[in-house]
Design a protein that fits this description.
- It is a single chain.
- The chain starts with a helix and ends with a helix.
- By secondary structure, it is mostly helical.
- The longest helix has about 35 residues.
- Helix 2 crosses helix 3.
Length: about 140
């Protein structure tokens, strides 16, 4: 099988399309969470701790010189990103928990699977034919 045909088989499988849709939805969800944290959660939190704007929190390592920008460590943006992550992780946890609960409820509603039928008993004739077959196999081995 050529690499091109292997790639074609891979690319047209449903799970690749599902993964692409998941990535697109995840990116959109990330933007929503970033806005929620930056525009809704952080301003009141900043007021509670004395009017601090987290996005402005930074340590200047080297001041700007001429055309060179300042070198800073923007730890406020890092704090905001950590809060974004916690919200996304919690939302994912709650979503997976809900899906698992639905699966569990659905499994409980389904009737129990019937026990498989017992294998039919082997007749004396079938047993004899099986033994003959096994003996013939042993004779033809080198």
């Amino acid at each position: 099988m050529s690499i091109l045909s292997e790639f074609k088989t891979f690319a047209v499988k449903g799970n690749v399309v599902d993964m692409a849709v998941g990535i697109i939805i995840g990116a959109a969800f990330g933007k929503i969470v970033t806005s929620f944290v930056g525009d809704v959660i952080m301003p009141p939190l900043g007021i509670l701790i004395g009017g601090v704007d987290f996005s402005d929190l930074a340590i200047t390592l080297k001041a700007a010189e001429g055309d060179l920008p300042a070198v800073i460590i923007a730890y406020g943006k890092f704090i905001q990103t950590v809060i974004d992550f916690i919200i996304v992780a919690f939302a994912m946890f709650m979503g997976i928990k809900a899906i698992n609960k639905l699966k569990h409820e659905k499994a409980a509603e389904e009737p129990a699977a019937e026990e498989p039928a017992a294998e039919p008993e082997i007749t004396a004739q079938e047993q004899l034919l099986t033994e003959i077959r096994d003996l013939l196999k042993q004779q033809h081995r080198p």
